[in-house]
C-alpha cells in the first residue's frame, strides 16, 4: 500500500469527524442483533478510528446525490452509482464497494468528480473461486438429480445418473484475474489441464500459476469445463453466443460465477436441450431474479443458484474488512488498494 500523501489528505480546515454512509441494503433486519444484513463485516475498526456510521435512506436501486451528499465516504453493496450520484456540491471523497462488479457503477463519472471508487477483490477471491469449484463438481457429479431421487423415494434409476470425474479434465476460464487464479490453485489436486482466455493478461505476469494463456477459439475447443470469471463489459456481453458455444466439445460443462449477460441465454438453453452441452452451473443470469418458469429451471444437469452461492460469513467478513482498510487509508491520506480507476489520484491533484 502506498504511504505517500494522497489527494484526499484532510486539511486542517476540514471537520474532525469522519462520517461514513452505509447503503440501506446493509441495514440489518428489524429486531436483529447483527451489525449489518451481512453480519459482522468489521465496522468496529471504523468506529474505533472515530468514524460516525449512518445508514442511508432506502434507495430504488441507485444512489442519488441526495443519498450521499455531505458524507466523507460511503460503503455500499447493491445499489448502482451514476453520474448524478456524484453531481452534488459536496460528494463523498470515497465510494467503497462491498463487492467486485462495477457494471452498475459509472467509474468515469466518479473519477471526473474526484471521487475514489474501491472494490474488494481480496475479500471475494477465495469465496467466488470455491463457489465455482462447487458448481463444477455439482454439475459433473449430477448432484441435483441424485438429490431429487432421494427426495422422491425412487432409487431404481440411480445407474442412469452416472457422473463424470474432474480428474484430468481440461478447464478453461474466461478471464484470468483473482478468482480464476485462485480457482486454478484449488484445482491442483485434480490434475486438470488449465487454460485461460484473457487478452489483457500479459504472459510474463503468470508467475507460478499452472495455466496456459490461449485465444478464445482454442480455449473453447479444448475445454471440458468452461468457467466464466470475466467482468461484464461491452466486449464480453454475449461473448459466449451460439457460434462460440458450438466450438465446445460435445458434453462440455459451462459454469458462470461472473455476470449473466456474458452468456447468451437462449443459445445456452438450445445447446443444453440438444445435448451438445453436458450441463451448466449458473449463479448469475441475464434477468434476475430468473423467472420460475424459465426453460433453464426444467433442464437436466443444470444447477442454479440465486447470485448468492459465494455468500458466506467468510466472504462477508473479508469483503467488509477490505472496505474498512480502504476507507481508513483515504481517511489517513493514503492511496487505498484496489482503486477501480487509479487516474483519480492524478485528476484529484490537478
How many strand units? Answer: 14
End-to-end separation:
22 Å
Largest sheet: 7 strands, parallel
Portion of residues within helices: 25-40%
Secondary-structure-based class equals alpha/beta
Shape: globular
Number of H- or I-type helical stretches: 11
The chain-level mean pLDDT equals 93
Strand content: 15-25%
- Element-by-element helix/strand order: EHEEHEEEHEHHEHEEHEHEHEEHH
Give me the Rg, rounded.
Answer: 22 Å
Largest sheet: spatial strand order = 10-9-8-11-12-13-14
How would you describe this protein?
The chain has 350 residues and is α/β, with parallel strands linked by helices. The chain contains 11 helices and 14 strands. It has helices spanning 44-48, 65-68, 107-112, 121-140, 143-152, 178-187, 216-221, 242-245, 265-273, 313-331, 343-348, and strands spanning 18-22, 51-55, 62-63, 73-76, 80-81, 94-97, 116-118, 170-174, 193-197, 212-213, 225-228, 252-256, 277-282, 302-304. The chain has a 7-stranded parallel sheet with strand order 10-9-8-11-12-13-14, with helices on both faces. A 5-stranded parallel sheet has the order 2-1-4-6-7. A two-stranded parallel sheet has the order 3-5. Strand 12, helix 9 (265-273) and strand 13 (277-282) form a beta-alpha-beta unit. Helix 4 packs across helix 6 and helix 4 (121-140) packs antiparallel against helix 10. The two termini are 22 Å apart. Mean pLDDT is 93; it is low at 1-5.
Amino acid at each position: 500500500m502506498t504511504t505517500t500523501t494522497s489527494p484526499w489528505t484532510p486539511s486542517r480546515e476540514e471537520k474532525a469527524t469522519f462520517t461514513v454512509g452505509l447503503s440501506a441494503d446493509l441495514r440489518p433486519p428489524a429486531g436483529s442483533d447483527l451489525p449489518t444484513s451481512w453480519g459482522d463485516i468489521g465496522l468496529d475498526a471504523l468506529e474505533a478510528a472515530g468514524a460516525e456510521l449512518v445508514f442511508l435512506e432506502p434507495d430504488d436501486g441507485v444512489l442519488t446525490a441526495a443519498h450521499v451528499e455531505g458524507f466523507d465516504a460511503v460503503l455500499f453493496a447493491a445499489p448502482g452509482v451514476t453520474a448524478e450520484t456524484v453531481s452534488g456540491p459536496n460528494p463523498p471523497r470515497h465510494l467503497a464497494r462491498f463487492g467486485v462488479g462495477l457494471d452498475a457503477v459509472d467509474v468515469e463519472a466518479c473519477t471526473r468528480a474526484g471521487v475514489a471508487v474501491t472494490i474488494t477483490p481480496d475479500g471475494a477471491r477465495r469465496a467466488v473461486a470455491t463457489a465455482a469449484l462447487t458448481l463444477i463438481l455439482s454439475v459433473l457429479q449430477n448432484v441435483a438429480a441424485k438429490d431429487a431421487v432421494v427426495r422422491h423415494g425412487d432409487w431404481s434409476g440411480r445407474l442412469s445418473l452416472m457422473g463424470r470425474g474432474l480428474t484430468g479434465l481440461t478447464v478453461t476460464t474466461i478471464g484470468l484475474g483473482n478468482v480464476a487464479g485462485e480457482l486454478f490453485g484449488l484445482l491442483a489436486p485434480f490434475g486438470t489441464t488449465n487454460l485461460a482466455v484473457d487478452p489483457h493478461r500479459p504472459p510474463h505476469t503468470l508467475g507460478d500459476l499452472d495455466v496456459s494463456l490461449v485465444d478464445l477459439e482454442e480455449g473453447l475447443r479444448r475445454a471440458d469445463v468452461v468457467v466464466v470469471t470475466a467482468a461484464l463489459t461491452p466486449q464480453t456481453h454475449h461473448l459466449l453466443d451460439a457460434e462460440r458455444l458450438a466450438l465446445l466439445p460435445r458434453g462440455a460443462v459451462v459454469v458462470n460465477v461472473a455476470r449473466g449477460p456474458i452468456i447468451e441465454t437462449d443459445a445456452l438453453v438450445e445447446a443444453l436441450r440438444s445435448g451438445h452441452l453436458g450441463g451448466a452451473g449458473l449463479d448469475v443470469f441475464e434477468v434476475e431474479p430468473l423467472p420460475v418458469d424459465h426453460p433453464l429451471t426444467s433442464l437436466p444437469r443444470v444447477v442454479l443458484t440465486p447470485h448468492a452461492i459465494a455468500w458466506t460469513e467468510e466472504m462477508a467478513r473479508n469483503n467488509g474488512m477490505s472496505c474498512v482498510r480502504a476507507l481508513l487509508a483515504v481517511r489517513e491520506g493514503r492511496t487505498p488498494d484496489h482503486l477501480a480507476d487509479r487516474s483519480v489520484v492524478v485528476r484529484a491533484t490537478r
